[in-house]
């Protein structure tokens, strides 16, 4: 396992050790002991999620507020996405900054996104299966989000705007300046 820091404290790139042979490959997609040892964090994940999306689908930018905030360990098991994490931690020296990375079933990379971040991704391949671990349960009442095209973040989603497929809920999300307290 290799862990690489990003410019956003606590947001880490995790590359599992892949064992390839004539049959294909094997890798441990998660090992709590190795996760703790290599990341220096003792996050305990209690919920696994999976979503399927076709090309151009953009889910985000989402977070859960306050005590329902979630750290996420995200990966792609089919296809390729551009994954984006936005630092919303009050007092963070990188507040409002984002980190983006291509996650795919070819690079097998994972991104650890701490509590206090907004998260989203866009599907770059024909379709994608996105899997992620959360350290807090889903809490509909604490759901929050920011608009994916907020000029404050200036995120390059790679695909042309006309190719993006965004839910009505996400289209209606506010920009950071209009969002009020994000609860972090
Ligand atoms: C997130 C979630 C959703 N749901 C239900 C609620 C809705 O009826 C349905 C679809 O939910 P939603 O449209 O919020 O799904 P996404 O747009 O993929 O939301 C996720 O997108 C970005 C990328 C994230 O990081 C978050 O985990 C999450 O907000 O699943 C649940 O039952 N449990 C859950 O944990």
From TrEMBL:
A Gene Ontology cellular-component term: cytosol
Catalytic residues of the enzyme: 62 (proton acceptor), 132 (proton donor)
Function: Catalyzes the epimerization of the C3' and C5'positions of dTDP-6-deoxy-D-xylo-4-hexulose, forming dTDP-6-deoxy-L-lyxo-4-hexulose.
Taxonomy, superkingdom: Bacteria
Site (Participates in a stacking interaction with the thymidine ring of dTDP-4-oxo-6-deoxyglucose): 138
Protein name according to UniProt: dTDP-4-dehydrorhamnose 3,5-epimerase
Protein family (similarity comment): Belongs to the dTDP-4-dehydrorhamnose 3,5-epimerase family.
Subunit structure: Homodimer.
Organism: Mucilaginibacter ginsenosidivorans
Annotated gene: rfbC
Source lineage: Bacteria, Pseudomonadati, Bacteroidota, Sphingobacteriia, Sphingobacteriales
EC number: 5.1.3.13
Record GO biological process: dTDP-rhamnose biosynthetic process; polysaccharide biosynthetic process
């Amino acid at each position: 396992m290799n862990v690489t820091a990003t410019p956003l404290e606590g947001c880490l790139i995790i590359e599992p050790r892949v064992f390839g042979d004539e049959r294909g490959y094997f890798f441990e997609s998660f090992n709590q002991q190795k996760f703790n040892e290599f990341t220096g964090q003792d996050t305990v994940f209690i919920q696994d999620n999976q979503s399927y999306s076709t090309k151009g689908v953009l889910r985000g930018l989402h977070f859960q507020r306050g005590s329902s905030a979630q750290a996420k360990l995200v990966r792609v098991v089919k296809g390729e996405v551009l994954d984006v994490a936005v630092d919303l931690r009050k007092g963070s020296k990188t507040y409002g900054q984002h980190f983006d990375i291509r996650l795919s079933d070819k690079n097998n990379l994972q991104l650890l996104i701490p509590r206090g971040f907004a998260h989203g991704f866009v599907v770059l391949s024909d379709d994608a299966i996105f899997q992620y671990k959360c350290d807090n349960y889903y809490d509909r009442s604490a759901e929050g989000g920011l608009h994916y095209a907020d000029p404050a973040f200036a995120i390059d989603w790679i695909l042309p705007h006309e190719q993006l497929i965004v839910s009505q809920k996400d289209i209606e999300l506010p920009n950071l300046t209009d969002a009020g307290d994000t609860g972090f």
